[in-house]
Design goal:
single chain; disordered C terminus; alpha+beta; 41% helix; 31 helices; globular; disordered N terminus; Jelly Rolls; Cytochrome Bc1 Complex, Chain D, domain 2; five-stranded antiparallel sheet
């Protein structure tokens, strides 16, 4: 057992070597004075506790707790090389003993679970969950994305400028809006070249949450509506001046479609009928619909993000929020600050104002209805029950609804009060109250927030009311339905980008002299290439994790094909290109990933190695002891990047982590700073050999990136890391809080179902939405839910 020293006493004793007598003196009262102290424990108390705390909890010199993912042998090697600081190092035999003690007592995940069992922690809704929930409360769980396979906008073409139905010539679905008619017309017959109009209608899918800038380019009159069918986002219907590019900005929630309308009207101002009869040519006409996604460059809105059917408007709270905490490796609503409280209040007021301003449409109650008050109270009850995710009692209804209608000056103010009360209530803002509950409505809430980051839909609530969420089979059936919904893909997509550490889009600048052609447009296209790859691999029925690592398909367009040596016409859109499997393999060698984890001029084996070690293998790495500045290539112009990195990280203080990082990153050295293949650097052949010491102690050697990709595709370590990280992203709770068996059980199930990621999502939710304790496992022992 660990000795229960007081901090002051242990620090005092550690000033000099501890003797067996002194150890006996500080033993707890219930311990035997003559009990032998294990050698590893003695060494730890003498040489380590002053800096790390008597139980590895951290001390002033080194405040972080001694926990991590290294094996006992890896710890022993690190201790022998680097500990304690100073000229006198711990001998190899002593390092082995103290490493075993540290690992078994408080360092390993099993030791952590034993010493401090994980719990399902109380947390608030994340910012995204709050915004999604409010949007669905206002919209009553409308369909997030149209359920249709055809993409594009439905266009109506008129031979007049006024969109009169009797003047319509034809209708069709246009994949994109990017037309240059010149002096001609949309079709050979039925149009007069001096005057025609087009009306496009449908919906647009926003892939990301954030600020979107819509751009219409035209030399004639245009109007654009997005998520508001009454007020145009862009109104340039009457041309004035020489401007041909018009902009509008609004905030959208990712994973949802929004109604979109676009009008184009060509009218040859100044050309009279006499001139037309003389054959004077009509002026040219063109129109193009672009957007700038959050932190991206302008591009035509692609067909995959357009649908010919329209959807209702979605309320999007524009209130800015402080960011959620990510310090523990996944996003959680753990901080309750004044800024957060003020943001919640402002967003609640914003929502209440919108509801009241649109009360007739939202409630379906006419302003002059004789029973308007009663119907609005019924609407408010439905609102409260959806906000609280379960039916409310009559006493609740009296407080939240009845009292407000009695005291408010009018029905509108009563509704406003109800909305404000509900959105500020802990019953809306917090989810893990009664975390062990198997109440059907709590199960429905866990499913909806786990897979969709929002409140339960009507079908989930109906299942809860009928008692159809009581068994694992029933929960699995609902999870399978929900995983097929685009909202689940949006959450899974966000996870994949987070897992690959490219979720925060930033400027991807490179040295233009060295990498001509790699500009902001190329960087944005590479991002699209990665997103298409992820969607087509993971959102398929197969959804095979191994294909993420092993696929030799890369999505390229004409511009990227030229840059990366593929054979496509210059104006080609995105399409899959098959590459040599001896050169590239899956996401590991995707140019966007390689470009992100590289410098302005050179590759970066360290950044690439850290990504693989931390995210793909789940290893814990300590931050560098000091600010890290890479050696400039100009200082050693004859060295390769690999040689420079090896030289800089050679000291023992660096090599403890870089002995793992570097050999992983070196396997990707065949790819330069933009992820382009190379064979030579500084007149030397590229060395892509690498290695990895697995947790079982086996040294795995790699010849190149495809070798490493094959290891990651089939490694139990990589599978476990992926399962754990996806679990945290969906559930937003520590996996150990659901029992020590949960992670290995999920990992075995993952392999048993062909490493299908979508099926893994179902298993995670079926495991956590209906929490159970088994008789053979006590929560106190394995960290079950309390």
């Amino acid at each position: 057992m660990l000795l229960n020293f007081s901090l002051q006493r242990s620090l005092g004793l550690l000033a000099a070597p501890l003797s067996l007598i002194s150890l006996a003196w500080i033993l707890p009262a219930d311990a035997k004075p003559d009990a032998p102290v294990p050698a590893g424990q003695k060494i730890y108390l003498q040489q380590c506790a002053a800096c790390h705390g008597k139980k590895g909890e951290g001390a002033k010199a080194y405040p972080k707790p001694l926990t991590g993912t290294r094996t006992a042998s890896e710890l022993a090697k690190f201790i022998a090389q680097s500990m304690p600081p100073g000229p006198k190092q711990c001998t190899a035999p002593d390092a082995k003993k103290v490493a075993a003690y540290i690992h078994d007592t408080f360092y390993s995940s099993l030791a952590q679970a034993r010493n401090k069992p994980a719990r399902v922690a109380l947390s608030r809704l994340t910012v995204l969950q709050f915004r999604n929930a409010v949007a669905d409360l206002v919209g009553s769980s409308r369909l997030a994305v149209p359920n249709e396979k055809q993409h594009g906008l439905r266009g109506e073409y008129f031979k007049s400028k006024d969109f009169r139905s009797q003047e319509r010539v034809f209708e069709r679905v246009d994949p994109e809006v990017q037309f240059d008619f010149g002096t001609a017309t949309p079709a050979p017959e039925g149009f007069e070249p001096h005057r025609f109009s087009i009306h496009w209608q449908g919906s647009v899918l926003a892939p990301d949450t954030g600020e979107y800038e819509f751009v219409v380019k035209s030399d004639h009159g245009v109007r654009l509506w997005v998520n508001d069918n009454q007020k145009p986002l862009i109104d340039a219907s009457i041309k004035s001046g020489s401007g041909t590019e018009f902009h509008g900005v609004l905030t959208l929630l990712g994973g949802r479609a929004y109604p979109l309308k676009l009008e184009f009207s060509k009218s040859s101002v100044g050309v009279d009928d006499a001139e037309k009869k003389k054959g004077k040519p009509a002026p040219p006409a063109s129109i193009a619909l672009f957007w700038k996604r959050p932190k991206r460059t302008a591009e035509p809105i692609p067909a995959r993000c357009l649908f010919p059917s329209s959807v209702p408007e979605t309320f999007v709270a524009a209130t800015p929020f402080p960011p959620d905490d990510r310090s523990i490796g996944y996003e959680r609503g753990t901080s309750i600050s004044k800024a957060w409280d003020e943001a919640i209040t402002t967003a609640a007021l914003e929502t209440a104002h919108f509801v009241v301003a649109n009360l007739k449409n939202l409630s379906g109650v006419e302003d002059n209805a004789p029973d308007r008050k009663e119907k609005l109270q019924a609407y408010c009850r439905q609102w409260i029950e959806r906000a609280f995710r379960k039916p409310i009692t009559d006493a609740d209804a009296k407080f939240y609804i009845g009292k407000q209608f009695q005291t408010a000056p009018d029905a509108e103010n009563a509704v406003k009060r109800v909305v404000l009360l509900s959105l500020k209530s802990p019953r809306f803002l917090y989810r893990e109250i009664g975390a062990q509950s198997t109440d059907a409505y709590a199960v429905a809430s866990r499913l909806s927030f786990g897979l969709w980051d929002t409140v339960p839909d009507t079908e989930l609530l109906q299942a809860a009311s009928k008692g159809e969420l009581a068994t694992r089979e029933q929960v699995t059936k609902q999870a399978e339905r929900m995983v097929a919904d685009p909202r689940s893909w949006n959450k899974l997509r966000a996870f994949l980008l987070f897992w690959l550490k490219v979720d925060d889009t930033h400027d991807l600048a490179k040295n233009q002299k060295r990498y001509a052609g790699f500009d902001a447009v190329a960087a944005s296209d590479l991002r699209t290439s990665l997103e298409l790859f992820l969607e087509n691999v993971v959102w398929s029925e197969k959804s095979d994790y191994r294909e993420l690592m092993l696929s030799n398909s890369l999505y390229l367009n004409g511009k990227l094909a030229k840059l990366y040596g593929a054979n496509l016409p210059e104006n080609s859109g995105f399409e899959p290109v098959t590459l040599d499997p001896k050169q590239r393999a899956g996401i590991l060698t995707h140019p966007y990933i390689l470009s992100n984890f590289a410098y302005l001029d050179t590759s970066s084996p360290i950044h690439r190695g850290v990504l693989i070690a931390r995210n793909m293998l789940g290893r814990t790495l300590a931050p560098p002891p000091d600010a890290f500045t890479p050696l400039a290539p100009d200082l050693h112009p004859k060295l390769t990047t690999r040689q420079r990195v090896a030289m800089q990280t050679k000291p023992d203080a660096c090599n403890s982590c870089h002995s793992m990082i570097n050999p992983l990153g070196f396997t990707l050295e065949r790819f330069d700073a933009i992820g382009r293949l190379r064979e030579i650097e500084n007149d030397q052949k590229i060395d892509t050999t690498g290695s990895y010491r697995a947790r079982n102690g086996q040294l795995v050697k790699f010849n190149d990136a495809p070798d490493l990709a094959r290891f990651l595709a089939n490694s139990d370590e990589a599978h476990s890391a992926f399962v754990e990280k996806l679990f945290h992203h969906l559930v937003k709770q520590p996996v150990l809080a659901y029992g020590g068996h949960t992670l290995p059980d999920l990992q075995r199930g993952f392999g048993g179902k062909g490493y299908n990621i979508r099926k893994l999502m179902v298993e995670i939710m079926a495991t956590t939405a209906l929490p159970k304790q088994t008789p053979s496992e006590s929560p106190k022992r394995v960290g079950g839910i309390q």
